[in-house]
Design brief:
Length: about 280
Amino acid sequence: MSGMNGTRGPDMAKDAVAGRPAGPDPAGAAPAVRIDDVAVRFRTKKKDVTALQDIRIDVRDGEFVAIVGPSGCGKSTLLKLVAGLLQPSSGEVQLRGERVRGPRHDIGYVFQRAALLEWRSARRNILLQAEMRGMPAAQARARTDELIAMTGLTGFDDAYPHELSGGMQQRVALCRALLHEPPVLLMDEPFGALDALTREQLNVELNRIWRRTSTTVLLVTHSIPEAVYLADRVLVMSPRPGTVTEVIDVGLPAERDYAQTLATPEFRAATGRVRELLGAVSAHD
């Protein structure tokens, strides 16, 4: 990963601002996600609204990218484009080299609310994914056991949602999203409703799970420390119409102790730059 040292040359800086990884993918493979010159426009009763414009993003296979920006700038809209839940007004979205033309079943999606079924246990909420996808029962059970152990839910698998804390419920939602081993995981403010301590704990868990699974992750968050702690790169977006203002290479190793990471020069430099950009956005407003 490229460090954030302020010494990038013009070509590398141009790549970063355009949302492209600096330099070619060593494997020469298509990016896991490509958003190519995308715009999204809506028509209301009173006027036409441009939600996104000139969006160009390549996300490498196995990369963790966080997306931050002011409310209403189109962060969640970006995830919907990748999931195929929304079509761009112009431009193209590709998932693993294939154009996204409709809802994709090869992604995982975690929302701010866990949205668990109250009448199903944690295990059966996870297995709902298998039922919807028609996964072989034995395979689904084995994968569920693996995920329960991986996320620290052992001993809580038979508990119902009302018996689980908010953090535990989000762990169940994460397991459900990962059950079919999606190559791309989309996360839309998954920890936004949690208390600060639980959020930190789940940040650490998510980093560990990401390293173990090598899943490509796109995370939308309003938390600057969360974005920098978790991501390889942070995309900072402008106010509506949303576009990519800058892409920041975090420059941290994949394995990150929470307290030690927050004390590193790389973490302070990256969070400072994000705050500077968002502060400039606020001043512009």
